[in-house]
Amino acid sequence: MKDLKETTISSKRVYEGKILNLRVDRVLLPNGKESGREVVEFSEAVAIVPIAEDGKVLLVTQYRYPVGDVLLEAPAGKMDPKEDPETCARRELQEETGYTAGSLEKICEFYTTPGFTNELMHVFLAQELTPGEQNPDEDEFVQVEAVSLQDAIAMIYNGKIRDGKTIAGLLAAYNMLKE
Amino acid sequence: MKDLKETTISSKRVYEGKILNLRVDRVLLPNGKESGREVVEFSEAVAIVPIAEDGKVLLVTQYRYPVGDVLLEAPAGKMDPKEDPETCARRELQEETGYTAGSLEKICEFYTTPGFTNELMHVFLAQELTPGEQNPDEDEFVQVEAVSLQDAIAMIYNGKIRDGKTIAGLLAAYNMLKE
For B73-114, what is each residue's pLDDT tens digit? Predict the structure, then answer.
């Protein structure tokens, strides 16, 4: 493979915020030319596909300000500093749905949109669920919905589920459980 | 359903760039409190799952500066102003792989990471492919790889494919073609 690497010439952080930072870099391209690169620095995150004993998957509805709509999503959240993905997955599942998982299995991981951010998403399958109290973050308002896995898959194709990590996670879990 | 909407109190664009803008808003939460919201404004985009006559899916390797690695991805790209998703999908497929599609079918659409950006990804299945010349953007260096769909699905679970739109698109196409 030809070397595709881009080398940093200079780097400037133009914004430092609450959940993200923005960096604007100059890079040297493989052809020797220069270009600019805008990078949103974001923490790693987890998403959980929680499947209950009755085969229903627990999803959450949440208002997403950047897109101006309520989305139906897999429970998810950012990793705290030094937190490992599995600990974060257990914490977010409990906070957003109230459930704790007897079985937690990593399915896959991916960059959510590697063209402009380093956000890395770890996806887990949670089973053997025990109900409990929801405990969301102070500025987070989520409602739990239980949907059959088959129905959730159909909602990907009919446009009722429109969140990337949820689509990837549901299909990856569905495909894995069918094998 | 309880009203989950967050209302904009004030909005400030802190950065205007080449591929993205950054906005920092104050919002009124459903509980009457205020909070801040950081929003990366990005264009809509498309990803294509191109499946050749021999059943192989055409993927592209590309250095992704924000994550510092070469990723194996579905052909994809941003929509030009006023361009519709299908036109963009045909253009990006041709630019990145050289192929044109006799059949192009929308599979699904999703927000890539709705917690901090409005980027909306339209995903297409492309079939009846005819080879031609690659024609990438000036600062874009991509190499085409043909992989059997079955192998591509396995690469989601073994960590060789680590791009969100590619995982969602491959699994959505695979599941649809198997029905």
Answer: 999 999 999 999 999 999 999 999 999 999 999 999 999 999
- The predicted complex's ipTM stands at 0.96
pLDDT of residue B92: 96
One-letter amino acid of A97: T
What's the predicted TM-score (pTM) here? 0.96
Q: Cβ–Cβ contacts within 10 Å for residue B95, how many?
A: 17
With 0-12 CB in 10 A as exposed, 13-18 as middle and 19+ as buried, what is A12? exposed
How close, in Å, is residue A130 to chain B by CA atoms? 24
B153: which 2 tokens? 């699905």
For the domain that residue B152 is a member of, what is the CATH number?
3.90.79.10
Q: For residue B1, tell me if it sits in a domain.
A: no
Counting the structural domains of chain A, the total is 2
Query: In terms of DSSP bridges, do strands A100-111 and A45-50 run parallel, antiparallel, or are they unpaired?
Result: unpaired
pLDDT for A77-130, tens place per residue?
999 999 999 999 999 999 999 999 999 999 999 999 999 999 999 999 999 999
Which of A27, A61, A175 is nearest residue B1 as measured by Cβ atoms? A61
Assigned domain for A138 exists: yes
Range of the domain at B19: 7-42
Q: How many CB pairs under 8 A join A and B?
A: 207
Residues B103 and B82 reside in one and the same domain: yes
